[in-house]
Design a protein that fits this description.
The protein has one domain: Thrombin, subunit H (Beta Barrel). A 6-stranded antiparallel beta barrel has the order 2-3-4-7-6-5. Helices cover about 25% and strands about 35% of the residues. It is of the alpha+beta class. The chain is globular. β5 and β6 form a beta hairpin.
Length: about 140
């Protein structure tokens, strides 16, 4: 296998490199973690673009973890320190020199994988900041 082939094999959407654990999660039982988290829930069509990322995230100023994917409306965090569905937390997202502070509610938890959070209390200014943050992430990948 050439170096280019190996890099492509280890890269995800937007050229982000995945670790072995991430590849294993996506291949588990032939379905993704999204399928797991949707068990018992009605599937819905997503309106907002969601994309893979590996942002540093600080929860309530103390718990550090990584974001797995993000959209205008929420974020999926990879962490073993799971919170309860419905918990409201403060998030600090960082990517390079950019940072964004938001409030979010835990929408679903998948033991062994992580948790999905929905951004809350968004006014027009925060929505604009999220859009700019997402654009910066997209351009950096």
């Amino acid at each position: 296998m050439s170096a280019t082939s190996a890099k492509r094999e280890n890269s995800g959407k937007h050229g982000v490199r995945f670790g072995e654990a991430d590849r294993t999660i996506r291949k588990t039982a032939g379905h993704s973690w999204q399928d797991e988290e949707m068990k018992g829930m009605e599937r819905r069509t997503r309106v907002q673009e969601r994309f893979t990322c590996f942002l540093d995230v600080l929860i309530n100023g103390t718990l550090s973890c990584k974001a797995f994917d993000i959209s205008e409306g929420g974020i999926y965090l990879r962490t073993d320190h799971l919170l309860k569905t419905g918990d409201v937390v403060n998030l600090r997202l960082t990517s390079g020199r950019s940072a964004l502070e938001l409030k979010a509610r835990v929408k679903h938890v998948v033991e062994g994988f992580g948790m999905g959070l929905m951004f809350i209390d968004l006014d027009t200014v925060l929505k604009s900041k999220i859009m700019l943050f997402l654009e910066e992430i997209k351009q950096s990948t």
